[in-house]
Amino acid sequence: MNTVVDYFLIPLLPVMAFIFAGLLLILVQCFKRPSLRPFTKLLGFLGPVGAMGATWYLFKSQPLAYSTAMAGSYEAWLNEFIQSYQLDSITMVWYWAIGALSFVSFIFIEAYFADLEELPEILILLEFIAAAMMLLISASNLLMVFMALELMSLPTYVLVGIEREKHFGAEASLKYFLFGSFATVLLLFSIALLYAYTGSLQFTQISNFLRVPVGGENPSGLMVLAASALFIISVGFKLGMAPFHMWLPDAYEGASTPITGFMGSAIKLAGFGMALRLWWGMLAPISSHWTEILGVLSVLTMFVGNLGALKQKNLKRLFAYSSISHAGYLILGLISISKVGSQLGVQNLFYYLVVYGFMFLGIFGILAVIEKQTGSTDLSNVEGIGFSHPFLGLCFLVLVLSAAGIPPTAGFLGKYLLFADAVRTGHTTLVVLAVLSSVIGVYYYLRVLVALYMTEPSQRIVLTTKNRLVFLGILACAFCMIFFSFFPQKLGI
Predict the structure, then answer these.
(1) Amino acid 492: pLDDT
(2) What are residue 85's DSSP bridge partners?
(3) Average of pLDDT values for 129-155?
(4) What is the DSSP string of 203-248?
């Protein structure tokens, strides 16, 4: 048995699919030949398709027990990798979700930037971001968390301002970079504090130390609590959690529309995967200290998002604030996982993340078509689309109803599952506040539907695209809102 192949290369197959696609794109780009451009576009899909295929292969052929327990008498670097990389059932399904969301995102992005010279560079950055997301989900070492997070964040800063002629995009990119850098510094401080206290960077060893401290140290000491607080702030920045959300509306509005869709779906899913590993994988022994704080921040996030969206006239900014409110619901689901390895709670959280991801991606796929034709995503640009473009109008209707949590869409079922978990774990007050927040949110979602079907357009807009895959991607996202509502078991529920 070749230990390097079995314990290093094979477990990394989904990640390497994205990296290999990115390297191939770099190689093709070196030739600078126009005849290779169609080949470049095709190569863009190699990453997500290869990652989903590799995940399927691992799920069928590998035992899902790849963890720190497998460390043995191997070379030092291989032992270190085995202890830093976790490949379990949670990792597998989240890998699949990243691959699927990335595939649909690539469809929208390739169509939007089809005529842009920088398209190959954009695809290269996307491939490496997706690889970093997978590493982030499977990390069981704080050093790997930091490296994966930076590999994911730095290209994203570039993508936000990739359209150089849009000055607002450059401003949004700079603001995103500054806030992200500040969050990174706080994350490094928290890692340093935990390492100084426990002497380890491994999740399992830190968790064991906090559970049974050596030498009689207090696991709730000032250093641990300070590290936990810094983790909440730094991760809160990445998740768009209030009051650390200041960058998000500007970044989402300033970025190109399909890039925003990718950020709000796949990257948000990876961020919550990281939060799940950190809080319930590493800091679970002191959960009583941070769950109450996260509960308060969850409610604050819901209301800040929904109240902030009420007066928005730009749809990208409106759905950016909506994204903040959904982060609040997801944080409520996160703190409701009442014990380590609570499979039901993790499945419900994953269900909501996938449903939300396809919903957000579909909405921004439609907005990308509108922006490409009109140059704007103002609310006035969707007036009357429900009748002038029935297909897009119907898809938009289903996606917005799902975002509002209206039955029988999957968005309603996702909220129900999270709220039911929260009630079971004693967070009834938080659920009541979450329901009130959802009612506020219904108002601005109805504004979109009124514009779609009940408002005469001030100008006639004809929405077309050369890439028919865009309409298939939008249809797939809308279809998921109905399909996963009636067949939630397809997502493990």
Answers:
(1) 62
(2) 139
(3) 91
(4) HHHHHHHHHS-GGG--TT-HHHHHHHHHHHHHHHHHHT-TTS-THH
In this predicted model, which residue has the larger pLDDT, 455 or 143?
143
Residue 342 has pLDDT above 60, yes or no: no
Question: How far is the C-alpha of 70 from the C-alpha of 7, rounded, in Å?
Answer: 9
**Residue 232: other Cβ atoms inside 10 A:** 22
Q: What is the pTM of this model?
A: 0.91
- Residue 122 is which amino acid? I
d(CA 46, CA 25): 10
Distance between CA 175 and CA 324 in Å, rounded? 17
User: Could you read off the pLDDT of 249-271 as tens digits, one per residue?
Assistant: 888 988 889 999 999 999 999 99
Q: Describe the crossing of helices 315-335 and 428-453 by its angle, rounded to 10 degrees.
A: 160
Domains held by the chain: number: 1
The range of the structural domain enclosing residue 137 comes to: 3-491
Indicate the burial class of 469 (C-beta count within 10 angstroms; 0-12, 13-18, 19 or more): middle
Look up tokens 């059932």; give the residue.
89
Rounded Cα gap, residues 105 and 102, in angstroms: 5
- Cβ proximity of 251 and 153 under 8 Å: no
CA atoms of 357 and 12, how far apart (whole Å)? 24
**CB-based contact 103:48 (threshold 8 Å):** yes
Q: From CA 477, how far away is CA 492, in angstroms rounded?
A: 19
Give, in order, the Cα–Cα distances in Å from 249 to each of 278, 298, 400, 480: 26, 18, 19, 26
- The answer to whether 329 and 352 have CB atoms below 8 angstroms apart is yes
**First vs last C-alpha separation in the chain:** 37
Residue 426 in tokens: 């004693």
Q: Which two tokens stand for residue 191?
A: 């890692």
The answer to whether the beta carbons of residues 342 and 250 sit under 8 Å apart is no
- Please, what is the Cα angle at 46 between 45 and 49, to 5 degrees? 80
Q: DSSP for 387-420?
A: HHSHHHHHHHHHHHHHHHT-TTSHHHHHHHHHHH
